[in-house]
From TrEMBL:
Organism ancestry: Eukaryota, Metazoa, Chordata, Craniata, Vertebrata
The keyword Signal is assigned to this record: no
Keywords recorded for this protein, A-Z: Leucine-rich repeat, Repeat
UniProt keyword annotation of Transport present: no
UniProt xrefs under PROSITE patterns: LRR
Protein name: TILB protein
Record-annotated membrane-spanning stretches: none
Coiled coil ranges: none
Amino acid sequence: FFFKLPSDSFKYLNWCDLEEHDVRGSQLLCPRVREAGPSEEELFFRGEEHTLKKRKQVTETEKWQKKLQENWENCAELNLSYQDLGDLYQVENLNRILRRLIRVEKLWLVDNSLTDLSAIRLPRCKELNVNKNHFTSFKQLPKIPQIQHLSLSENNILTLSGISALRHTPLESLTLKRNPCEFQENYRQLVFSSLPNLKTLDGVPQLPEDCSPPKISFLSKLCTIL
């Protein structure tokens, strides 16, 4: 037998839509920031009319108060994973939030269908996890000058082209598991030679053979016709 939790009537609301609370955005590690929820018609067919809140006209003053309450500028650690924020309907709000994260040091954006964050700058970010998204190149990553730990597993990064953009960062660990570039010849040597500060790749510390310069085989450039 199915029992609804007391919080069931709030499941389609954002935290800042809840009344009579003094919680600020910097106090929430995993806020829900998706815009809107199911339409009134869809809620009716689901039999969830009780979750529908009366929509009211929002004044400019209320919008400003809401922005102050979010307080993204002072957020140091944030998890926005598993919200499909790369959807066309969501991406504008996501970018608005990311541009305000001027002090964030740890940011998780796992499984959000993201494709391009190159217009975003995260000046203090030291740890960024964007696993399970749709990035195809390092050039689509945000500007992260202070990055130390970067996880990009299960994306669609085809080659190591553009990885040199991370060369002048203090990057110590990089995860590229389950990307096509992982199968590139001399993969580990190429990555370590491009990133002088790197200590760990895909969870494996730098090995002696990783320090040798990548060998370019002349034969690999030839085409053999049988």
